[in-house]
Amino acid sequence: MEKDLMIHGKENMPLMEKLKILADAAKYDVSCSSSGVGRRGDGTGIGNTLSAGICHSFGADGRCISLLKILFTNECIYDCKYCINRKSNDVPRATFTPDEICELTIQFYRRNYIEGLFLSSGIVYSPTYTMELIYEAVHKLRTLYRFQGYIHVKAIPGADPQLIQRLGLLADRMSVNLELPTAEGLKRLAPNKHRKNILSPMRQIQQGITQNKNEIVVYKHAPSFVPAGQSTQMIVGATQESDYQVMMVAENLYKKFELKRVYYSAFVNVNQDRELPALPGGPPLLREHRLYQADWLLRFYGFEAGELLSEQKPNFNVLLDPKADWALRHLELFPVEINRADYRMILRVPGIGVKSAQRIVRARRNGNLNFEDLKRIGVTLKRALYFITCNGKMMYPTKMDEDYITRNLIDRKEKLPFDRDGMTYKQLSLFDDSEECLWKNII
Amino acid sequence: MEEYYLICEDSLEGIFTGIYDAYLKKKPHGQIHLSLGEDENYRLFAAYESCQPDEQKAARVAATIIREFGKETYLAICRALASEKPDKGEAVYKTVVTGLSMKDKRDIMGNLANPYIHRVFELARFTANEAHYHVEFLRFKELENKILYASMGPKNNVITFIVPHFADRLPLENFVIHDEVRNIFALHPARRDWYLVSGEEKDWRTEHTFSEGEKMYSELFSSFFHTIAIKERNNYGLQRNMLPIRYRRYMTEFQENSSI
Prior knowledge:
The complex is a heterodimer.
Chain A: H1 2-8, H2 15-24, E1 57-58, E2 64-65, E3 67-71, H3 98-110, E4 116-120, H4 127-143, E5 150-154, H5 161-168, E6 173-175, H6 183-189, H7 195-218, E7 230-236, H8 243-256, E8 261-266, H9 285-300, H10 305-308, H11 322-329, E9 336-337, H12 343-347, H13 354-363, H14 371-377, H15 381-384, E10 388-389, H16 402-411, H17 426-432
Parallel strand pairs in A: 3-4, 4-5, 5-6, 6-7, 7-8, 9-10
Antiparallel strand pairs in A: 1-2
Helix pairs in contact in A: 3-4, 4-5, 5-7, 8-9
Chain B: E1 3-8, H1 12-24, E2 32-36, E3 46-50, H2 55-69, H3 71-81, H4 88-100, H5 115-137, E4 141-142, E5 148-152, H6 159-169, E6 175-179, E7 184-188, E8 195-198, H7 204-207, H8 212-227, H9 236-242
Parallel strand pairs in B: 1-2, 1-3, 5-6
Antiparallel strand pairs in B: 4-5, 6-7, 7-8
């Protein structure tokens, strides 16, 4: 009874103000994708989902806005040093009611502002109590409002596993934040959180997904459990981990926990805590960018973390993307003959992406390809030309020399990985094609 | 060597009829070209003919394309023909000719080394990209009578590619999508099939006022849009890459509450 009073005690606050506070508090969560599950509407409610996901807008920071990303409440009993909502911070606090969340989602969705709901929360009273609040809102949205669009919810470490199981049957994607790459970092910066508590719901969701897939084979109409898979995120640059450590953690998450996505979040120093690094140059965006590039190499290009980095070379090259960097260290494998090499080797050529590689393999069945054809197919020749031959010939006479090629790859202005404000996202946006924007180029 | 130019109407039916008539000529295809509309620069030593769109001829060409190349390719050709580019008729015609002489006809769109096929691929991609942009960025406003209304100004004729998406998503809503450039309306009555109306002179925006909730929710969303960006990461170049400026005049979050 007393609990209810405290939680719903601020209902008088105007909706506009609540939304501002609770969107502002949620914005540091990276994940916004609405991908992973394709589901047509059944004609009785509102909404459907596309497996490639849909972005509906792009904010001033260039990040995609796909879901109504909000916290249920920014009240929190924890005191994580990096978090704006920690209990020792004096910030305005607000709490939604389930109905407010449902109305906002439906009204935004009808107007095509959003693809669905992303609901996270600060911890009130206990993880289980908080999950119950989230469950209530999501359940109402799915049943009373008949919402069939995308829902992404946070599983809160330490919450009752049964509750996570029930929520998984309503949500499309669930995520548990790893917060920091190593257990030591977590201990130091998030004293109320424990690595074990984070990994166990992750494992539970993984097993739930596997079990559900088997059920669906047997019973076609069994309700699906987290059909769009689970994701996680970790903060990069708040603690001392090397890129190598971060990539090894990510690789393990993909292999052992079968995650759909691992997100990296460049640390933004919001609290100026003395335990945290001051970042005079702003958040480590270039580092985050390199991690995402490497992440794509792991997921779509058949690379292993150990090929890209090692104990001896623990950090990514600032000037070159990880793929070009790898190629330059393995010049003995190049040049590659485009008309004969196998798909996996073509994928490893800098300047050739997944789509170009697929098109090459398909187009060469109708005859040998030349450089003009490659250009039309979409290969970035000014990067690829050092690494390929067409019909035995290189595009220009080129020395297979590491320094020479490096100079040519980075000498060009547009090839520099950063521009005035620190970096350019060109490469990332291109790579982004592979998931969110795949839809555009399916033909 | 005499060259023939067949002038077709700028529509699926018109161009398919042109392809049918080109085959009727029984001349080498290299000498026959399709062009659209009237403002062609006439050439010396070339014969010009105009083709009347013919439903039956067009249907036979469409059936051949589906039978020989498959549905996926047919869809790509439809997308290419929705393009605004005037060379689309010629590209599709020569693509069909090339495809019919290929060993593996089903793989026609993979043959990107052929300039015509590549052009069709490119045009289809323009249209598909623009259609996808509209799926992302189209914004509905609620009118007084609860009808959702959206207007757009696409370069290519994308309306038929995007309405099915919204019809599946909003089955219980009455909604209207208006292509301002071509003055075409797509109408979707709740629980029923959608249809197109073209050339209607009605201006919906002056005849109807927006609902009470419209002002509130568009303000809420605009506020959400500005709040969710992390200012330490501002990157307007990236924003412009992902959300081209020409779409913004139709988007709620970029409007200064002027229309309400």
